[in-house]
Amino acid sequence: MKNDMLLIELTNKIDDCIEEELADLLVQVVEGGASIGFLPPLSHREAQDYWAAVLHPDVRLWIAVLNGRIAGTVQLHLCGKPNGNHRAEIAKLMTSPQHRRSGVGRALMHTAEEAAAIDGRTLLVLDTREGDPSNLLYRSIGYQVAGTIPSFARSANGSLDATVLYYKLLEANV
Questions:
Q1: Which DSSP string do the residues of 83-98 spell out, in sequence order?
Q2: Which segments of 23-130 are extended strands (E)?
Q3: What is the pTM of this model?
Q4: pLDDT digits over 90-113, tens only?
Q5: Which residues have a Cβ under 8 Å from the Cβ of 39 and sit 6 or more positions away?
Q6: What are 12-46's pLDDT values in tens digits?
Q7: Residue 22: which H helix or E strand, with range?
């Protein structure tokens, strides 16, 4: 992890300045081909609307800040169902193109995992498009492949791509 990186959890309402930066980041990664639920072209307004509505009691959100700018973000979606209060989902891991492969994603994942364990979550799940570089990160930090679902998500070119489901068992810090 870079020494000058700050990892900040956002709670309640995202302030306008941060929302602007997050919207810029979302547009950049979608334009760059990331499979995170959106297709290009993604308007800045749509991205802002997403961030304005993202925080809920069951969603935790962190940003990585480098040199005063947002370099990445990740979410932890807590399962609130009685039979699932031991698990959570990692969602929307994004790293700005200029900070990829510099430890930002790894640091964000570590932060989300640590928070999940402190919250008593012992199972994390996530999915990502088959073949994306993120698969290498997830495997390198101990996520196991649970399976692949064909034709799961549409890509910008109209093709239907497979997604890989991952899981990781954690020790709860209770």
A1: GGTTEEEEEEEEE-GG
A2: 59-66, 69-78, 87-95, 123-129
A3: 0.96
A4: 999 999 999 999 999 999 999 999
A5: 30, 154, 155, 156
A6: 899 999 999 999 999 999 999 999 999 999 999 99
A7: helix 16-31
Tokens 């290009």 correspond to what residue? Answer: 40
DSSP state of 82: G
Sequence-separated contacts (24+) of 149-153 with Cβ below 8 Å? 152/127, 153/35, 153/37, 153/129
CB neighbours of residue 135 within 10 Å: 16
Please tell me the distance from the alpha carbon of residue 159 to that of residue 157, in angstroms, as a whole number.
6
Residues 6+ apart with CB under 8 A from 66: 2, 4, 5, 6, 99, 104
Q: Which of 65, 77, 63, 81 is nearest to 127 (CA)?
A: 77
Residue 72 has φ and ψ, to the nearest 5°, of 180, 175
List, edge to edge, every strand of the sheet that includes 160-169.
6-10, 59-66, 69-78, 87-95, 123-129, 160-169, 144-154
List the one residue out of 7, 38, 6 whose CA is nearest residue 25. Answer: 38
56 is written with which tokens?
């809920």
Q: Which of 126, 39, 111, 129 is nearest to 72 (CA)?
A: 111
